[in-house]
Design goal:
Pfam families: CPSase_L_D1. One of its GO terms (cellular component) is cytoplasm. This is Carbamoyl-phosphate synthase large chain. With about 100 residues, this protein is an alpha/beta fold. The chain has a single domain, classed as Rossmann fold, CATH 3.40.50. Helix content is about 30%, strand content about 15%.
Length: about 100
């Protein structure tokens, strides 16, 4: 897939707190997404409500928010970082 030159910044929404024993695969896939996108030259903005993850390591994203994953919170982050357009790239657990 060719790199999108019209997109500079990508928002990654972490899975947040999960039941013990289920967090590893969600955290790993999110961390790999952050790493791959940064290697491609995109600015990565991460929001995750769980500070005890690999994803919230300072080297994983350009900007990290440890905030509740609620619509109003995410909306403020989108506005603050001028994040447009939206594309769903990775899937995780459903709430």
């Amino acid at each position: 897939m060719p790199k999108r030159t019209d997109i500079n910044t990508i928002l990654i929404i972490g899975a947040g707190p999960i039941v013990i024993g289920q967090a590893c695969e969600f955290d790993y896939s999110g961390a790999q997404a952050c790493k791959a996108l940064r290697e491609e030259g995109y600015k990565v903005v991460l929001v995750n409500s769980n500070p005890a993850t690999i994803m919230t390591d300072p080297n994983m994203a350009d900007v990290t928010y440890i905030e509740p994953i609620e619509w109003k919170t995410v909306e403020k982050i989108i506005e603050k970082n001028a994040l447009m357009p939206f594309y769903r790239l990775w899937a995780g657990r459903q709430r």
